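Let us walk through a complete example step by step. Step one is to write down the protein sequence. Step two is to encode the small molecule, flavin-adenine dinucleotide, as a SMILES string so that its atoms and bonds are unambiguous. Step three, shown after the inputs, is the structure prediction itself.
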Amino acid sequence: MPYTRRSFMRSLGITGGAGLALGAMSSIGLAPAVASTPRRFQAPAAGDLIGKVKGNHSVVILGGGPSGLCSAYELQKAGYKVTVLEARNRPGGRVWSIRNGTEETDLNGETQTCTFSEGHFYNLGATRIPQNHNTIDYCRELGVELQMFGNQNANTFVNYTGNKPLANQSITYRAAKADTYGYMSELLQKATNQGALDQVLSKEDKEALSSFLTDFGDLSSDGRYVGSSRRGHSAEPGAGLNFGTEIEPFGMSDVIQGGIGRAFSFEFGYDQAMTMMTPVGGMDRIYYKFQDAIGMDNIEFGAEVSGMKNVPEGVSVDYVVDGKTKSITADYAICTIPPHLIKRLNNNLPSDILLALDAAKPSSSGKLGIEYSRRWWETEDRIYGGASNTDRDISQIMFPYDHYNSDRGVVVAYYSSGKRQQAFESLTHRQRLAKAIAEGAEIHGDKYTRDISSSFSGSWRRTKYSESAWASWAGAGDSHGGMATPEYTKLLEPVDRIYFAGDHLSNAIAWQHGAFTSAQDVVTHLHQRVAQTA
Ligand SMILES: Cc1cc2nc3c(=O)[nH]c(=O)nc-3n(C[C@H](O)[C@H](O)[C@H](O)COP(=O)(O)OP(=O)(O)OC[C@H]3O[C@@H](n4cnc5c(N)ncnc54)[C@H](O)[C@@H]3O)c2cc1C
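Step three: the predicted structure of the complex.
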């Protein structure tokens, strides 16, 4: 019977990771019994699996990003000999923290060297972690210190271009929310009182709804929104008889037509809702911990894979280090190289697999970090973390969540994707900076143009060894996964002894969690296969 990952999963009646493979092994007498209740993946502790599989088994892992390092780490726990080949000279792949000394030549041919002050950085790729993601569990296991990441801040601004009312005005999120929620509540209250909802609501329903709306919209006793202290004050309340000065609300029609609430739903997203977390000192801290755990003897940096073939002895991989071609043969390979780059390798993959890889389309995204020698966003705008939102090409301005109240900091002057990022992609760094400053100044004023000490930008489409921010599966719409398209599903199976892993093979594309779950899934399958054939 051909051995497929799907049949394995079906036979278990579960989907999970290496922790679950332990359960599977217990059923064939290779590991101690574990509770049979299905549970979430739990990374096995050191020693759980080591020695349980007879013989020596080797796995070569192509790529030292999250999925590659997670695969190596978990396989090592189970006693496999692993070799990670990574083209870059650092771990983490698209998890890349930019700090003093970071140097990169992009595919436009421009070289940048980061000169941020010591201790300052920004994450050009992954930057935040939702509480539910297993990335948090690896941080716990590896000892990576976490801190809160402000995904939302009442004091940051919305500012949208155009001719609509309230266009080109910087409005705090707190004012935009108070007015939007206030007027929406007033309108619903009116509709309810005028009997428009009598077909669907009972008298008791209407009373309960009215009480909710009065509180939610901060409505007056006659059901109107007439402004609220939630909007903020032009003069802060203080001691004695200083009651502060509330800011008048915008008009209802302006609020509706201006669409100042268009970004509110961002934080409603399952994976964007507070509390969000991030490692202290940069997201790349996670991958230096993986590197320590796996051991430098088992990782080769600067190793650009040029070929990967199934051969009778296993999998043969060619790679280039310092201009010299080397080869390695292992029992199995896990290929975590981005899908659209795999066909460039000298390979003997079947044509249907190459076609399936082609369905993972590359996408644009990028960021530019500016180090300011004065934290004007804190002292003048009272902004501590979070982001301002706009429909300009910069899309958003993200404020630092570290070094609060110190004398300098790195602002992410844009984090944009799709067409808005394409407007930056082909520019030189200087041109990107000039555009970012001009658009940022339209939102935060003249101070945005001053006290700049250095900057660094990156565009993932123009970054070697990535050439994409994340995969977008043809036929899967805007979903964060492959939506079980035939191409996606095909790549979930190994091609003889070659496995594919990466966030593109998960339902959490563009999240480290996706890369980890994909790695865990592959490790589980490979481990079970070895256990059954050993
Ligand atoms: C702009 C941006 C923002 C993001 N934000 C978040 C976030 O906030 N939170 C979050 O959790 N995730 C975020 N992500 C997603 C996260 O970075 C990815 O999910 C994760 O990096 C995927 O890991 P991977 O191992 O599948 O792929 P990669 O990280 O791409 O790793 C693949 C590895 O293969 C290597 N490689 C390529 N070609 C070769 C070759 N020929 N030979 C050898 N090695 C090669 C690459 O150098 C790389 O190290 C973001 C990504 C981007 C781009």
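Step four is interpretation. Residues 512-533 form the longest helix (22 residues).
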